[in-house]
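Narrative of activities, Objective 1.

The group set out to show that a structural description can be obtained from nothing but a protein's sequence at a throughput compatible with the screening campaign. Below is one input-output pair from the validation batch, recorded exactly as produced.
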Amino acid sequence: MVLSNTIRAILDSNFQRIAKETPLLELLFDLRTSTVFTKEEIASLRQCDSLRERHHQFLVLFRTKTDADFRQYYISLQNHRSKNVQKFGQRLETEAIAAFKQPADATSHLNISNESEIGYRDPRPYFPVVAEMIGIKWMKLSRTLDYEIPSRLIDSECKSQCDKAVAALNSWYDKHGQGATVNKLKVALYEIGRKDIAEKIGRAIFLLNMLDYDGLLDRQKMKLQQRDTVEEFLYQIALKRGQCQSDFIRIMFIGPENVGKTTIMRILIEEIRVYHSAATQVVENTGKMVDFSTFKIYDGTQQDYFEVLKRKIQGAVEDYKEKQIDMPNFDEIESLSSPRNETNRDDNDNLSDHIKETKAQRRQIIRKFFKQHLRLTEKFNIDRNQYGKLWDFGGQAVYHVTHQPFISGNSLYILVFNIAESIGNKVKARGGKEARDTYLDRIKEWLTSVIGCSNSKTEISVKRNNQAAETYRLPVVILVATHGDEIEGKQDPIATFDEFTHKLVEQLPSYKANICSSRIIFDCGEENYNTSAKIEERLRRREDLLNIIKTFAQALPFVNKPIPTKWYFMATLLHSQENGIKNIMTTSEIKEVAVDYGLYERNMDSVEDDQELIDMLLYLHDIGELLFYREEITKENIVITNVEWLVKIFRALIVLEGSKTITSADTLEDYNIAYTTGKVSKRVFDNALSPFNLIDDDKERVLKIMEHYNIICEIKVDVASSNCIRQFIVPYLLRPNVTFTTNKEEEYVSGALFMGFNKSNIPYISDGIFYCLVAACMKKWNNQFVKLCYKCAKYYIRQSDYYMIIKKSESYISLEYSYQILNENEDLKVRQAIEVQRPQFFIMDTFKKIINDRMPRFQAADCSLYVTCCMCGKLTSQLSHEDQDHKGRIRCQKCNFIFDSPSLDQWGMKKKDIIKKEELSSEKAVNFIKCFDIIAEKLDQKCLFRFATKLGLEVKDIDEITMNSSTSYDKVLKVLDRWHQNLGSKADIWQVTGILRNIGNVLAAEIVEEHLCSQN
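Output recorded for this entry:
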């Protein structure tokens, strides 16, 4: 629940008057006691240096609050001693009522959930809670509910504050009857500043709705307090200690666009008569980018997910109760059943009969209730079914980069392909238009995202159709075909399916252990599509697919394992979007909600409790209930409780929604720049995000998530231009027609080096991985001269005045550099810069790090540089000095031809160039002193030993230097001097910069390299 746009507008329009007429410091105590502001927020307001700063900070903080908090704010103003302040509070209330156009009920904007027409209209079950907590404010509450309640008479006749509150509430109910509802009670509590009581009532309603006890209890045979006591017992004990089965599996439909994923999903959930559906959220239209459904794996029937969760929770309560019925922990029940308001009553109070009951009597009542309750619910069937949560992603290429945050190694994947199309054909969009990519390209993208980016090493054994058990590695991808009726000629569909599988495994050999070839083929033709014969055939195919899903679901290691019942309860709670639940929350906020609902203790600060909370969030992340991002992504643990909400935000930013409603020429130009250059200004993002009403902190969190997954990358600006609008690179905005050309008469372009892995290890580099590299290089060479085009980036290296060009080329990354042709000295300067900086090795190291992070299963794979053989045109990777002959020539690994590679020469990797370079460095007076000075200043003393050993110094020499030097600067300087003495004329400072990078001191390496380039 967040502040509505209407209330934000009122705050903004009255900012000057708030700053001028609000005695903020005097109001802070009231706002703190009414829980509008936290203790930390109050402290931040008090620490502001000026009045203007304090009011500005107040407005910023208030934008994160709710409409109910705004109501409490103007009530606090109305209760102030100053008449001017009171009038201002009345004005704010009038504006709020007028804005919402509901003068008859000024509290409707509090977003209090509507009461059910059937249950919980009667507020009397909640009177004890209110009476226990209200204290001396009972009279204020009674006057707010109804000014005619005889408050003074009640005050004189009742002794304790609790009794007075109960009497006033009963008087209110007796007068108004059915008109006295829970909602009106909650609104009155909000009005007097007791938000805590109102929210506690809201939580109680939520819990009772969840457990659905109306249908289970014979309320006529139970006293009100006895019933509520046992319900509270069942809730607290069963949710805290109870366990249930892990019965949910996320099943994601993946594959190219326009192949029938949505159709298969609809067939699976028992929609037999399906017709051709529209594309799953094509970019040009609005709607869903991902569809969600829940179905019972046993028979495929579609389910209401929240009803399933309710049954699971009810079942856990029933199961726990049956186990405890013979030996209940009556000491604990006693503590729960004792009236909480006893401690608030005076010793001389006349206690009612049910309060005077002995422990034995209470135990007898509870035991009797348990047995009676068991008889009433003996026909209750605990739901032990497994359920699949279906996700159907859009298959368009523009979406690929947004899928990665949602991928989990503990999900099942169904890859749908069009069997009537050759795997090498271009993808056909709706309307017959061909895409630039082939079906194989798109499938490679999907499998790399799902399998290649998983760190799972788990293997499962699966036995199907009475055959021998087969071993699969997680995550499992099930191949399913469509358009079987469109196969040309007399081809055997199964043989065609097997041929597709063979070609796929041939291209992606390291993924074969994850792929299940189902041989299931659905027809999708329009002719005779819904005849009885076709429907019968689809039913058989559907049954086959359900059996495969069931087989794998039962083999998954986390399925059927016991999990705490409260994990399912938290899933329902987080989706309620009530009682403090927001779309985006921190784990500390989640923890607070869990504590409020009794799932954890208030003092849960132990490592074990925190880890259990993390385990719960990871589990809910795996089954697709939420998205959990660890602090290394956003510098705080972030939970997205509404997955579809985040998907919509990603879509809005990827396709830059909102341009059609813009009238400002300046902003329209920003959009045009974004589409042609991939550079997006912050105000374009703000415009695209405006429908979501995000506060600034949440905007930054979303941007951090997108930046972590390299969906976007912020462009650094110079200090001189720090007032400029923030800009981001969004590579996926660029379409295939966005290219840049090189004028070869004015610009020199080097030969290409290729970077990649052995195909038996990493068979394909996805677009997502490539754009990770683009973003990582952006962080090193980040300036306004960066140029992007389709699957290509051109970086300007400012200190050396040349461009680095990085392209995606099939399963490799190609590297080129270019510079403007001015004179021979310019050529020499760039060549020397390339030799000193060795950018190809920086890019390769960066690429390997990305692979380690994004594709952890391939951490042991070796990344290599390749050049093209001038004879066969294939790539060869044997480029080291040992692989070159005395003239710097290499032998092709494919055709065995010996050739002279221009690329090796131009990138300074040729053996004769290395020899020349060593001779040059012995003759040339390199400014070692300046370089040593830079390193001595920048190197952390903690890295000294590692640095010295990598320079080749012996341990005894390092110890001697450490013992005889007083400062860190002197120690580093002596280490470098000793290294220089050991190597003599062979000492080359660029080797030192490589070591600095290797130990993580990149800053010192960059400064030294920049100095060396300036000397050339």
